[in-house]
Amino acid sequence: MITKPKGTYDVIDREALKLKKINRYIDYYCEFYNYDLIRTPIFEARELFHRTVGDDTDIVTKETYDFKDRSDRELTLRPEGTAGVVRSFIENKMYGSNMPRKLYYNGTMYRYERPGNGRNREFTQFGVEILGSNDVATDVEVISMPYRLFEELGFKNLNVKINNLGSKEDREAYKKALKEYLKPHLDDLCEDCKKRYENNPLRILDCKVDKDSDILKNVPSILDYQSEESTNRFKKVLEYLNYLDIDYEVDKTLVRGLDYYDYTVFEIVSSENILGGASTIAAGGRYNDLVEKLGGPSTPCMGFACGIERLMLAMDEMETIEKRPLDCYIMYVNEEEKIKAITLAQDLRMSGVSADYDTTGRSLKSQFKEADRLHAELLIILNSEDLNKGLINVKDNLTKEETKVDENEIIDYIVSR
Ligand code: ATP
Ligand code: MG
């Protein structure tokens, strides 16, 4: 037997019902919030991720699926969604008019990670990007939108962690201070952090190995190294979050695992026990330099990405999800009745009624059982004798009441029911 690759999973049965519900909510809410759908390729030029996510981030150094195609092109399965959206924004010249562009995506991502609870190698992210606005109202929309969506999905104990990375200049000043502070402790940091110290010291704050050490707990605060402008901007973000009734907690060590962020960064954390160490369900931030870095015009942007599998996991704790009952189950025995069954099913389905019938040669008695298993609300019991008189038998599966309906009025009758 051939089995699925490590770190991947099939979505079936209950999981599929949860996924459908989540996707339905995503599509609804993105419409309410005025986001347009974007779909970009699952693989992109490898360089795209090196230039955006960052050459010495965990994602690029350890986690990408890189391959060459038959013409020796260097390609990478996308580990995240923002890089592709920004590439598309530039390539399709979406800038210029109609700013800001508000886009959302929902698709699979690939990271070579150690699989575990809420951590897969193929996983799904839903995310939004607002391209072309530096207004703090966009920062708070991108934070509050997933927050409210998760609440609607039934999440109760959500926590927003927020931080301000400031401008590039602010970060340079902070990096210097951070390196000075860390210098005497270098030997106590993990091997990766020793490398990060030179190339990308901010990354040390995101280290999963050292995160609970006293050294990292006492680092200088990035918020003390910011210009007045950055500080005021952050104050405004927090003020607007208050207006929208979003609870938050400022976390001065939050830096996120990707290189392109500046100013506001945030995570939404769920306290559902089942998530364990995978409690961050969405994360994002502002990336004002990325479009320019990829060759487009200077365009301030803000976005987030949310792990769909983590939502699915947490939903287990919150509700029982059941398949919607079938509207109609159509029963037949002979060939004449069968032809009526398949045509009637088609007509009902085209009229917005869910309908099905047996295709495995079940006896009439087993068809009744199958109808119950599908929680069918109405049973259409065809028989040649009635059909010859132009009549169709409809039985309410709950009250058991039976009605004979004129064949010409059957669709209207069922729809009205
Ligand atoms: P983590 O700290 O959990 O590794 P991350 O910083 O790598 O997360 P992002 O790159 O910001 O995560 O991705 C945004 C969201 O996507 C995460 O908050 C999480 O919900 C989800 N996610 C990230 N990696 C995985 C994965 N391997 N499997 C499932 N979901 C994931
Ligand atoms: Mg990660």
Q: Determine the N-to-C terminus distance.
A: 47 Å
Number of helices: 15
* Secondary structure: helix percent: 25-40%
- In total, how many beta strands? 16
Bound molecules: adenosine-5'-triphosphate, magnesium ion
| Domain unit count | 2
> What class, by secondary structure content?
alpha+beta
Look at the structure and give the mean pLDDT.
Answer: 94
Major beta sheet, strand line-up:
1-5-6-11-10-9-7-8
The fourth-level CATH homologous superfamily of the largest domain is Bira Bifunctional Protein, Domain 2
Strand % is 15-25%
Shape: elongated
Could you explain how this protein is built, in words?
With 417 residues, the protein is an alpha+beta fold. The chain has 2 domains: 13-167 and 226-318, 2-Layer Sandwich (BirA Bifunctional Protein, domain 2); 328-416, Anticodon-binding domain (Rossmann fold, 3-Layer(aba) Sandwich), CATH 3.40.50. Helices cover 38% and strands 21% of the residues. The chain has an 8-stranded mixed β-sheet with strand order 1-5-6-11-10-9-7-8, with helices on both faces. A 5-stranded mixed β-sheet has the order 13-12-14-15-16, sandwiched between helices. A 3-stranded antiparallel β-sheet has the order 2-4-3. Helix 1 crosses helix 11 (308-318) and helix 5 runs parallel beside helix 9. The structure holds adenosine-5'-triphosphate (ATP) and magnesium ion. Adenosine-5'-triphosphate binds at residues 80, 111, 113, 118-120, 123, 125, 257, 278, 280-283, 305-307, 309-310.
Furnish the topology, listing elements before pairings.
Layout (H helix, E strand, L loop, with lengths): L12 H20 L3 E2 L5 E3 H7 L5 H6 L1 E4 L5 E4 L4 H10 L9 E10 L11 E10 L4 H17 L5 E7 L3 H15 L8 H9 L14 H4 L10 H16 L4 E3 L11 E9 L9 E7 L3 H4 L7 E7 H11 L9 E4 L3 H16 L4 E3 L6 H10 L4 E4 L2 H5 L2 E6 L5 E5 L3 H7 L1
Parallel strand pairs: 1-5, 7-8, 12-13, 12-14
Antiparallel strand pairs: 2-4, 3-4, 5-6, 6-11, 7-9, 9-10, 10-11, 14-15, 15-16
Helix pairs in contact: 1-11, 5-9
Bound molecules: adenosine-5'-triphosphate and magnesium ion.
